[in-house]
Amino acid sequence: MILNSQIPGGPLAEKWTKHKFDLKLVNPSNKRKYDIIVVGTGLAGASASASLAELGYNVQAFSYHESPRRAHSIAAQGGINAAKNYPNDGDSIFRLFYDTIKGGDYRSREANVYRLAEISNNIIDQCVAQGIPFAREYGGLLDNRSFGGAQVSRTFYARGQTGQQLLLGAYSALVRQMKTGKVKFHPRHEMLDLVLIDGEAKGIVTRNLITGEIQSHAANAVVLATGGYGNAFFLSTNAMASNVTAAWRAHKKGAFFANPCITQIHPTCIPVASSHQSKLTLMSESLRNDGRVWVPKKMGDKRHPSEISEDERDYYLERLYPSFGNLVPRDVASRRAKEMCDRGHGVGETGLAVFLDFADAIARMGKDTVTQKYGNLFDMYKQITGENPYETPMRIYPAVHYTMGGLWVDYNLMSTTPGLYILGEANFSDHGANRLGASALMQGLADGYFVIPYTIGDYLSGKLGESISTEHRAFAETESDVKSRIDTLISVNGNRTVDDIHKELGLILWENVGMAKNKAGLEKAIESIPKLQNEFWNNVKITGTADELNPELEKAGRLADFLELGELMARDALNREESCGGHFREEHQTEENEARRNDEEFSYVAAWEYKGKGNPAKLHKEELVFENVALTTRSYK
Amino acid sequence: MRVMLKVWRQNNSKSQGVFEMYPVKNISGDMSFFEMMDMLNDRLVLDGKTPIAFDHDCREGICGTCGLFINGRTHGSLRGITTCQLHMRSFKDGETIVVEPWRAKAFPVIKDLIVDRSSFDRIMEAGGYVSIKTGGTPDANAIPIPKINVDEAMDAASCIGCGACVATCKNSSAMLFVGAKVSQYALLPQGQPEARERVLNMVAVMDEEGFGSCTNTGACEVECPKEISLEHIARMNREFLKANIS
Ligand SMILES: Cc1cc2nc3c(=O)[nH]c(=O)nc-3n(C[C@H](O)[C@H](O)[C@H](O)COP(=O)(O)OP(=O)(O)OC[C@H]3O[C@@H](n4cnc5c(N)ncnc54)[C@H](O)[C@@H]3O)c2cc1C
Ligand code: SF4
Ligand code: FES
Fold first, then answer.
1. Span B87-101, pLDDT tens digits
2. How far away, in angstroms, is A276 Cα from ligand 2 center?
3. Which of A153, A514, A615, B76 could hold A510 in an S-S bridge, CB 3.0 to 4.6 Å?
């Protein structure tokens, strides 16, 4: 199969406009004849469900959450980018496009990213019209701040709760459609499989998480907006329930999985305190504007930081990167912290942390100014660690944060399975090998409000009169697969809990498929993960039954899929013999330990095809073509 | 440290619940309350017992999913935090901790500590939105809004929909939750065209759903993890009055 990305011809800036004109339309009075399933009601899914219903389609929306007001999206703190250029500081659609392509280390599609930048402005208009209280200046106009190393201020924000406000905005649009009946929302329903009829996506099978009932749902098209899979690592900044199941089930039914190994590791998180840790908390990147990162020069130095004198400290980011210092990009800061700890300079009880010190900032600006800027973050840190960052330097360590990989989609956001669309973090599309801060919210809402409403019609217009019923045997077959899988899980009755095995997988991935990868480690992971899969299917223990609310059973099903995904992540990383963005292969670095990209051989999207149990997935390549930007090497020296 | 947990166990919405006692040891003060529960649940599973079901997701105080009644206080006794932000260092070694679900007619128990808060969604369906469609909206800077109004709207919009206000109120009133939403829109020009219908419809559904009336005890404001102010209830009352007069 040859991957066709469906990128429209013509000049970059005109592609989307032209494409919108070329797409086939569904006549307004015919829209009500179509049913669309949307799985996921985070930013991407809620915005898509509401917008499709407004157009007249009948939408069935699903979430394992109790309400569409809950989703991982709600936790986003920093903000959302747009190319409004309100501050008059030289921003433009082209600059946002350029920054995103470059920030992604040239591993994303020009056409998609340009469209994203173009749409970014509509998103802000939409959100303001919904009544989202974005921060404003005294004159009453919207305020912007700079974020993630961008040289312009283009980030819109609502205190430190931007994700929450955007999600509540999309939720408000969605409940309005729920009221009219155009959206039927199914809370606490988890999609456990995709149903194909003649190779096209025509429905899903779900489990009602309260009653355990397995149900089929049919539609003319299926949209997955099910989020990222950072929780494969067990510990991440993702919400506890975030998982890969919907995407993975679709993958096993034929949808290609793209760049699964490319993960973003965020440098400023609160370090792991003990083996009981259940998740990691992000501390905003903005802290690096004023905090100084250091470790003791002496290995294994366990003295209190106040006893370590100035000349016994190594401010390693300032030493290695004199011009960017503590503000190097996320991937660089993360990798260097790991390196320091691996060399024995880590601090704290576990030795897996570095200091982020505000003593100089407090001396320079005064404690009050520091409180004004970072007070809430300092409070949060104190609450979690019990330490006072005004007096003792913070301890930070990198943590898994975002997955750039995801199901492969074409320009229309359709996967390799006809009728199956993927939105938001669940697709691989716009961030290449590294996502810039404040760009995930932008992408999720672009996909949901402004892309899918146009592109899905192109597919549906050819299906007028198509009637899909759950009576079709494909549904019964899929239901029976789902049930037998659940029965198997329950019947294992072994000796290890789900979390116990998940922690082991997390450690394998973190050590071998995490911040710094190498051939030997990846081969080790490829060897040990199948063994762990085996262990899981023979030794997991779940109590309770399948026909009741059973959180252990839910977690077990998700872990089963993470275990398979983990293997693919390792294979993908082994294949990608280069370092780019969040993907760092130790074999491919410069003398100064910087990432070395290989544009000749790896300027492609790796899209993996599932080949059945026990067989390695098959690699397909989508070559990336750059016509509008020159490929350069990042330097922060 | 060690504690004794006295936990509400209830199989499903129809069954009777009971308290059960669970000793938990080897707790470190750095553990969150939920990590302590995770540890207990893992032990229950290995002993062949059914783990305690409780709702949670972000574990950082923003999603609004968690909510436990701990020693008679919603989200525990510390101010301005959710249950998931509680750490074991705020309990005493050897303490007995009573853990219950939210209790309110409009929030029936689903299992153990998990309740059904879909009544909140139905209130929102009645008017918790501005009736616009995707696309065709004016430029975001077309209408200036005074910073002070937006800041106050943001205070109201911080509500995470956890339901602690209802659970702590002796009347099980949802006025703080509904007040926060009505107030957010009342403070913004976008909310004006539908102001009247919004407050009338949301209040009507609130009553239908079985939430009690507000007698101004102020308990909700004290227990709200996002410290939503009673001011918003007052603003909603003014909106309601205005709507009934006009
Ligand atoms: C701590 C943190 C801070 C962040 N800050 C920022 C920021 O400042 N700016 C920014 O741009 N980005 C930020 N991000 C990233 C951003 O928040 C996410 O990438 C984005 O919100 C993902 O949205 P989504 O709609 O794709 O998925 P999600 O919000 O994860 O939603 C997934 C939905 O799918 C449902 N679902 C999943 N699987 C199933 C299934 N099998 N069956 C039924 N339903 C299912 C879930 O119930 C949920 O409704 C941050 C991320 C984190 C972790
Ligand atoms: S008003 Fe406060 S207590 Fe009530 S739901 Fe909102 S955040 Fe929770
Ligand atoms: S789990 Fe999200 S607020 Fe507590």
1. 999 999 999 999 999
2. 29
3. A514
Distance CA B110, CA B10 (A): 8
Task: Check residue B218 and give left, alpha or beta (phi > 0: left; psi -120 to 50: alpha).
Answer: left
Residue A386 inside a domain? The answer is: yes
What CATH code is carried by the domain that includes residue A372? Answer: 3.90.700.10
B89 phi and psi angles, rounded to 5 deg? -65, -15
Q: Among partner residues A176, A499, A551, which is closest to B129 by beta-carbon distance? A: A176
Number of other residues whose CB lies within 10 A of the CB of residue B171: 15
Is ligand 3 within 6 A of the CB of residue B208?
no
Residue numbers of chain A with a pLDDT score lower than 70: 148-149
Q: Which residue of B has its CA nearest to A75?
A: B62
Query: For residue A204, is it within any domain?
Result: no
Tokens read off for A622: 């989508």
pLDDT at A328: 84
**Which residue is closest to A243 within chain B, CA to CA?**
B57
What the block records as the tokens of A473 is: 């045997």
Q: Is residue A216 domain-resident?
A: no
pLDDT for residue A319: 96
d(CA A278, CA A510): 15
Q: Which CATH number does the domain housing residue A574 bear?
A: 1.20.58.100
User: Residue B130 and residue A130: Cβ atoms within 8 Å?
Assistant: yes
**Pair A274, A385 in one domain:** yes
Nearest by CB: B53 against A142, A273, A551:
A551
Instruction: Please state, as a whole number, how many other Cβ atoms lie within 10 Å of the Cβ of residue A208.
Output: 16
Nearest beta carbon to residue B57 from set A84, A241, A541: A241
The residues, ordered by sequence, that sit 6+ positions from A309 with a Cβ below 8 Å of its Cβ are none
What pLDDT, in 10s, does the model give residues A495-542?
A: 999 999 999 999 999 999 999 999 999 999 999 999 999 999 999 999
Q: Is residue A590 part of a domain?
A: yes
pLDDT tens readout for residues B43-68: 999 999 999 999 999 999 999 999 99
Q: What is the pLDDT of residue A329?
A: 80
Distance from CA of A281 to the nearest CA of B (A): 7
Chain A residues with CB-CB distance to B195 below 8 A: none
What chain B holds in terms of domains, given with CATH numbers, is 3-110 (3.10.20.30), 118-245 (1.10.1060.10)
Domain stop point among A401, A436, A453: A401
Q: Do A129 and B89 touch (CB under 8 A)?
A: no
pLDDT reported for residue A327: 84
Q: Which domain holds residue A381?
A: 265-401
Report if pTM > 0.80: yes
CB pair distance less than 8 Å for A165 and B185: no
- Report the domain count for chain A: 2
- Identify all chain A residues contacting B15, using CB atoms and an 8 Å cutoff: none
**What pLDDT, on a 0 to 100 scale, did the predictor assign at position A149?**
59
Q: What are the chain B neighbours of A75 within 8 Å (beta carbons)?
A: 58, 60, 62-63
With 0-12 / 13-18 / 19 or more C-beta atoms within 10 angstroms meaning exposed / middle / buried, residue B140 is: buried
CB-based contact A66 B147, cutoff 8 Å: no
Looking at this predicted complex, what is its ipTM?
0.98
Check if B76 has its Cβ closer than 6 Å to any atom of ligand 3: no
Residue B246 scores a pLDDT above 80: no
pLDDT of residue A594: 86
Q: Distance from B43 to chain A by nearest Cα, in Å? A: 9
Give yes or no for a contact between B141 and A86, defined as CB atoms under 8 angstroms apart. Answer: yes
User: A401, A435, A463 — which closes off a domain?
Assistant: A401
Q: Which two tokens stand for residue A377?
A: 């973050």
CA dihedral A119, A123, A125, A126 (to 10 degrees): 130
